């Protein structure tokens, strides 16, 4: 169909507006990236650098030479890997059990899950629970308070509802029990959903800030986001702990920008590998035929 003059003008205006919005959104990321790679001497002389003449890895080398920064990356990696695995295991098994029509009491459990979605106990009850369990200043406290979500359980249950029960029945006839059928039949068919929810959990655990700040008092157990927050509000490099006094640290601003780039890079690298499963995993199971 031939578009009218009004349609062409409308499309051009849309492209221009969206291009301006994209440029405004991209500029902060570009500035952070450029400053993190700018030579410290050049940054001190200019302060505002958009097109650096000399590129340098000094800020990254300095950060990765500090024990505090490396330790925070290790803590965040542990949270993202172990936390995501445990959360997927708990969420998927609970959702699968609730999708089985022969499971007695599943309606009552669903009501309890819906209750947790509608009514959040709040910070103080959660803190008192963690304290009574003796998990204060324990990295597992951050995982346990974020272990699952009622909303994720409902969505994953909808996905499992879309899998024909005849497949599980056939596996049972062949000698599989419910656990074997779940791991050998249901999970391989659920890879899009597992990938989508795994990305949700991984991003949430990697970006853990408030729960870690609330339950972890030992700075050696801080994840990268808590350390980054302390770096951003501190004009010096004291939050990085003891460093070699003979090494001249780069400007604090370039260190902060380098820390931001390092903090966002893992998720940016993981997302493209899961992107093809992302849309399918989110939408599948949401519409029943």
From TrEMBL:
Bilayer topology: Multi-pass membrane protein
Pfam families: BPD_transp_1 (PF00528)
Organism listed in the record: Metabacillus halosaccharovorans
Source organism phylogeny: Bacteria, Bacillati, Bacillota, Bacilli, Bacillales
Recorded family membership: Belongs to the binding-protein-dependent transport system permease family.
Keyword Membrane: yes
Classification via PROSITE patterns: ABC_TM1
Annotated protein name in UniProt: Carbohydrate ABC transporter permease
Keyword Nucleotide-binding belongs to the record: no
Localisation per UniProt entry: Cell membrane
Transmembrane intervals: 12-33, 73-96, 108-127, 139-160, 181-206, 255-274
ABC transmembrane type-1 domain mapped to chain residues: 73-274
Alphabetical UniProt keywords: Cell membrane, Membrane, Transmembrane, Transmembrane helix, Transport
